[in-house]
Amino acid sequence: MTEILLTHSNHLYSDRKQVAKMQPYPPLQTLIAAAWLRERGFEVTLADITLAESPDAMFRAALEKHRPKLVAVVEDSFNFLTKMCTTVNRELAFRMGAAAVEAGLPAVVNGSDATDRSAAYREAGFASVITGEVEKSLEEAARHFVSGHADHSWEHAVLRAPISDLDTLPDAAWDLIDTSAYRAAWKNAHGRFSINLVSSRGCPFRCNWCAKPVFGSNYRHRSPERVAQEMSRVKRELGAEHIWFADDIFALSPHWTYEFADAVDRLDAVVPFKMQSRCDLMTRETVGALRRAGCEEVWMGAESGAQHILDAMDKGTRVEHIYEARENLRRHGIRAGFFLQFGYPGETWEDIERTVRMVRETSPDDIGVSVSYPLPGTKFHARVAAQLGDKVNWNDSGDLDMMFHGAYSSDFYRELADALHEEVRGGVPRWDRVRELERMSTKPALTF
User: Fold this and answer.
1) pLDDT tens-digit profile of 301-314?
2) Which of 82, 200, 211, 434 is the one with CA 20 to 30 A from 116?
3) Burial class (CB in 10 A: 0-12, 13-18, 19+), 1
4) How confident is the model at residue 147 (pLDDT cuts 50, 70, 90)?
5) pTM higher than 0.85, yes or no?
6) Which DSSP string corresponds to 247-268?
7) Residue 108: which of 37, 18, 20 has the closest Cα?
8) Sign of the C-alpha dihedral computed for residues 306, 208, 133 and 69 taken in this order
9) Is residue 324 helix, strand or coil?
């Protein structure tokens, strides 16, 4: 009998956009939690449903095979898909909770959506919703249930303080995943195997549409040496040919970045990597250090080419930062990706044109386009909550539904996203269709 069965609800084949991209990453937070429990003497196993043909069948088979004393649905809180709180992920988690109850087993859950909708998760059968960082609270739950408590009830009453020294966290339990399946998917689709790592938790910036229900705004980082050591490990033991640093903000500190580049060089740990950051952090000196460490691609939240929209978002950046960051990255041969967001209240057609012009003038290597998405706990959500209908979450990552009263229809924004993607990627954009849908709209742009 296995003491603890860990799983998650991010099933790649339930998300059509992610199937098209075919960039599957293991559930990093789940694997770190598993390693944490192992260090404390627990026997753990993982039902990794990411690439499963049938996630429900795989999970039920794991319940039957291992008969654990505790089921823990620990979402990968470093994964943007998990943070989007899509209904397909939620429904799968609910089915996992129900299956555990049916098998007579207690289950706990941790993740962004569970934090936002704790009552619904309890209704689905979970004994408790673990809020905040998962490791210490999951250990407490494990001690409760493994000790033989038969009532299947455990209430996590206290939100534990975040772990201050992230170097005390173990490396992810990579042996629990089927590395060959991930490698095959990556090699077939992209020709090289990519793995995900993380160097920090939290984000100190205050963009008013950004939800942070798990790690919050308390930014902490691992030491440069520890990050470089894990890079070396996945390079040599897993055969990683590329790394995605899944931090909200990677290399926030210039000093940390210089030390990181030195450590990577010293340990011969260079692996090409991509990361996420902000335009105003991509200075010449920082970009130079990133290039030395192996960085080949940086994704930044450009959001808009209209300054008053950036100000309304509490973004804290200037449009000129976008241009400067793009030039700094270009100078060092690093690909630049822009996250763009349309539909924020107050945005007009002229503002959309400003964003399109900014993209054309800076020529990013790639873009990701979204529409403003109200998530609970954000200032933005509070402002538009009265406009929300029955649908308050996207079904999957390609939904792009406008769930509040935007200036234009969802069809308009989807067509806009498709056209801009086509232009950046060298295709044939349908700008005539975008303008047609723009003219059909009679709704004024809303302001707060």
Assistant:
1) 999 999 999 999 99
2) 200
3) exposed
4) confident
5) yes
6) -SSS--SHHHHHHHHHHHHHTT
7) 37
8) negative
9) helix
Helices (H), 194-278: 224-237, 254-266
Assess contact for 115 and 55: CB atoms under 8 A. no
Q: Do 304 and 416 form a contact (C-beta atoms < 8 A)?
A: no
Query: Within a 13 Å sphere around the CA of 333, how many CA atoms are in the beta-carbon half?
Result: 4
Q: Would you say 350 and 309 are in contact if contact means Cβ atoms under 8 Å apart?
A: no
Distance CA(287)–CA(331), nearest Å, equals 9
Contacts of 366 (CB under 8 A, 6+ apart): 335, 337, 338, 424, 425
Structure tokens at 12: 């790649």
CA distance linking residue 17 with residue 12, whole number of Å:
9
Per DSSP, the residues of 118-151 read HHHHHHTT-SEEEPS-SHHHHHHHHHHHHTT--S
Question: Phi and psi of 377, rounded to 5°?
Answer: 90, -5
User: Strand 44-47 to strand 273-277: parallel, antiparallel, or no bridges (unpaired)?
Assistant: unpaired
Strand order in the sheet with 242-245: 194-197, 242-245, 273-277, 295-303, 335-342, 366-371
Q: How far apart are CA 80 and CA 78, in angstroms?
A: 6
* 383: its two tokens: 């402002």
Work out the average pLDDT over 347-356. Answer: 96
Residue 411 pLDDT more than 90? yes
Mean pLDDT of all residues belonging to the chain: 93
Q: How far apart are the first and last CA of the chain?
A: 57
* H/E segment holding residue 114: helix 112-116
Location of structure tokens 């998530």: 375
What is the CB-side half-sphere exposure of residue 280 using CA atoms within 13 A? 8
Q: What is the dihedral of CA 347, 348, 354, 355, to 10 degrees?
A: 50
